[in-house]
Records
---
Amino acid sequence: MGIFLVTRNELIRSFKYKKKLVLTFLVPVFAVIVAIGVNSLMNPSINIGIIDNGSGQVYQQFKDKTNSISGLNIKYANKGSINTDMILGKYAVVIELNKDQSFVVTCLDSKFQENVNEIMKNYFTTGEVKGFEDILTKMESDSMTAAQRGGGFILLTLIITCTLAACNIIRDQQEGTLRRFLISPNKPVIYILGTFLYNFLSTIVQIVVSVGVLSMLPIDIGVNSMQLLLIGLIIAVVASSLSCLIVNLCKTELQASIIASVVALIMSLLGGSFLPLNKMPTVLKYISNSTITKWVIMFIGKIQEGVVSTATIAPIWIILGLSILMVIVACKLGERKFA
């Protein structure tokens, strides 16, 4: 009963500050919708830099031939900054075209360089550009789905917003509210679990509203509303559990917000939110196993496959197990901190 009493008091307190409540509620909802919307519009693309050592006609002819290929972007490149431009991701490949129909392909990926070499040889032989469509199709099959990318960004966002909301417990300790609560027979763990439950329930409401809005928009992310709701529920469990751990680990709200931002970003980088797991170096693949983001993305992938099996359920148990462990550790830290 003590846990639900704390949860109720948190709810009552939130309604006293209506502007803050609306802002706290709308920001995560807006972030979820934007994350899903933006990721649904992301398609594989190849940026090609062209250095034309001729009169300019060679470049224009090649560009005209590739205009019909969706996802292929052709631009003039600076010969003096080829390597820098490719390292920064401005171009995936740079092609130097000469008057005598010879060419030089520069690329950081040797396999991709071989493919482009073959495409250019065929172009100067037959006058047709063939092969880029196959590369783009393979890139799409190898990349993460819109739902997986969106799920990763949603988790990153909700970890930060959940931590900011969970900072109430730090504020209560500083203002003496928590001390007055502990004078009664209640233990610190009751207060910790009560605030965790409130944070979890408010996050679920945000997810439900987000899914409701998304279902009315013409956005196809590869999962239906019920599947998206299940994914959101899992993400809510993770975000509220990790935020509970962070606030019970930190002494100030500033510390909690900084740590939440850093942890969320590192988890996203290592867990596959920005770079697909199958493209990571072997060492990082092993390290990613320790991030809960990886298991969330794997779970989303299994949901999209639509096959219920042991492989589908395994990520759920790992996610729930890690979440429970974080809450238990948070309670232990809180008992020492608030005692």
---
Amino acid sequence: MQFHKVPQLKYTDSNTFFLLAGPCAIEGEEMAMRIAEKVIKITDTLKIPYVFKGSFKKANRSRIDSFTGIGDEKALKILRKVSETFHVPTVTDIHEVSDAALAAEYVDILQIPAFLVRQTDLVVAAAQTGKVVNLKKGQFMSPESMKHAVTKVTDCNNDQVMITDRGTMFGYQDMIVDFRGIPTMKEYAPVVLDVTHSLQQPNQTVGVTGGRPEMISTIARAGIAAGADGLFIETHFDPANAKSDGANMLDLSKLEKLLTDLVAIRKTINQL
């Protein structure tokens, strides 16, 4: 993947990791702009290449009454406003073939959710837009099997593809990160570690996914030490009241300290 092809991506020569970060879901314009402004201030100071993340809709939910979005085009227009206001690229996930062309009009990177990464028609539709494609590794897939998902994209004459590891499920209610997968998957494409989703505790009896946010720093540090090209972090200024994935999200007030530490770790590794 040639990062200079990602529109508005800054600091690509800073020799550090890149960051995909933002709220789980777009809940409204004010919250999206508030989060983006804060993260951009931090990443500009630390010279971290930054992509604003926000789901325009949430299709994979535990319960039928869970929040799914504020309306597709309304949320996508907010993502476009973030990009135009702050001059940063944006990423959102898609769930159906028809989502690919729609979302491609508004964002720079199309993300394939982990549960859907084996859906050939969806991956191909994303690839054919010419946008960067971020493939989430299925919780049920080995690192080696992601080679085939990458090939689906490149066979569409699109070499703009990356892989995001979000943990692997061993048992019913926990996720485990196998850091051996990072160097393995880097043979196929740049690798991102999804820190916050790796700390989910799914399949809770109440129908709301739990999480271990106190372990975010541990997983992020290990990911950088293991050579991840980028990190994926969902963050919110009020995780307790976030409409999606609040249980495993990073409080926005803690992001600057975490990223400062991670940049220092990457700098040390670069000197080895």
